[in-house]
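Schema walk-through. Below, the input block comes first and the output block second. Nothing else is stored per chain. Lengths vary across the set, and this one has 69 residues.
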Amino acid sequence: MDHQFQIEGPFIELIGLIKALGIAQNGGHAKAIVEQGIVYRNGERELRKRAKLVRGDIIQIEALKIQLQ
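--- output ---
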């Protein structure tokens, strides 16, 4: 894994994760990243901007991999 990210609570929304990691400057930018189809969740393309990510999920955005804890 390239990175690990500790979530607070039972889940984090996909666009929230992208913003928290500093990949996107704001919510609109995070939504655009998801719409480009370059975000994968556990090996499958994820196009839902508000997908609820949970511990154990592996998110890939281009070459960056993040495991949620």
